[in-house]
Amino acid sequence: MSFYTTTPIYYVNAQPHLGHAYTTIAADVLARHHRQLGEDVFFLSGTDEHGEPVAQAAEALGISPRELADRNAARFEAMMPLIEASNDCFIRTSDPRHVAAVQEFMQGLHDSGHIYKGEYEGLYCPRCADFKTPQEVGEGETCPVHGIPLDHEKEENWFFRLSEFQEPLEQLFAERPDFVRPKERRNEALSFIKGGLQDISCSRAGLTWGVPVPWDPDQVFYVWFDALLNYITALKFAKEGEDLTSRYWPATVQLVGKDILKFHAVYWPAMLMAAGLEVQQTLVVHGYLLMDGEKMSKSLGNVLDPFEVIDRFGADALRFYLLREVQFGADGSVSTAGFESRYSTELANDYGNLASRTVAMVGRWRDGNVAAVELDAEIAKELEPLADEVAELLGKVEPTHALEAVWVRVRRLNRYVEETAPWNLAKDEAEAERLDQVLATLVEGLRCVTVALYPFIPSSTTKLLDTLGRPDISWSAAKFDRSGPGGSVTPLEPLFPKP
Ligand code: MSP
To answer: If one looks up domain 335-488 in CATH, what number appears?
Structure first.
């Protein structure tokens, strides 16, 4: 079974910030989990390099768009390993192979009559690179996203017959109620469609930084057409000498922030339908990370630097915090104080200490050997359903709920330590068997929550599983084995030391 997941491709008009890391981390959790399930996974991320957002930012800096794109694309690409993203490909839309594939796709739409020449007159936000419909225009003809005055655009350009897809799109939404998730976002996209779809410009006349329209070289494609196509063009060239399209398309889960819903839930499926391709299986939409109550964004200047956070706390802590703190799908606030508190109460205390003391107790009283004994039935009952629960929640792209399901067990194991007080059992020879059972139960419980946490915090879980002498991260290993396989553990450094 194949699993293909994507992030939006990020604009290179500025450096990466936490919002970009957020979507990428969420996609990475899915990719790692589906690899655990033994599926054939492809995970794509990359940069969106053309169009006005980049051309204008470059002009303001007095450099060429290509220079700015190269500079910032390198920063986005460098962010991937830092946040432990295991993407299989990083696409840049300035890549000539992408450019050629966009031209080929759009030529096909032109040849099949989906594109015609017309005149655009209306309001346009150069920061969103978005032609606003009357319902989308803010007060005083401003952009509701950026608060800047919208440009009056009047130009001759090429139009995509989006209106022809009104019915097919309505039908798609009716037949596949989970096509867009969560439900509020689905309803928002559907009401946009039901409001009546107008044909849209798919080229720009006054811009040179973009993919040239092959049949009209005075124009470049409107950046969203060029950008959306990355999800299929990458498959053509990601692997030398092999076209991966039939292996991975349609994408299983496309992840986006709510700011770009319309493009992914309306324009993109329409483009695919026009080309006779299957539409993506699901579009999962998350909310905004907020700081001081506002969307974190480079244009507003309220950004938290993911690189600094990783420097102090490590990538695992950042990954954990973002998916734990902000209910996936909703908006949520993040802060440095919030990081520190989750880090010390949950990662260092709840989980890190559970690991340290379990390993230390087995070391101290059993020379690191875990007895092969039947495990405690009460804990078995609570731990056994975990693997299925997490798989179901991650299958529905609910990482925050999945983490909570794991955390319930982490807390339960900590209570188990307190209840059984192994330090007292260790003092009494008559309790030797019970101590064996308690320690073996703790090791197995810890191992299971750790396999389940692997997609979220890959480095520390891998380290801990090595210590537990059971490095298998495949999903079958996430199952609690009450028969008590035994084994041995080796000493462990604190997983989440004080920063
Ligand atoms: N280039 C377009 C997307 C093209 S996809 C074919 C774009 N780029 S962007 O750099 O502005 O990044 C947008 C994405 O970054 C959002 O959809 C979201 O996934 C993520 N985020 C940017 N800021 C964010 C927050 N403050 N909070 C959460 N996610 C945010 O739009």
So the answer is: 1.10.730.10
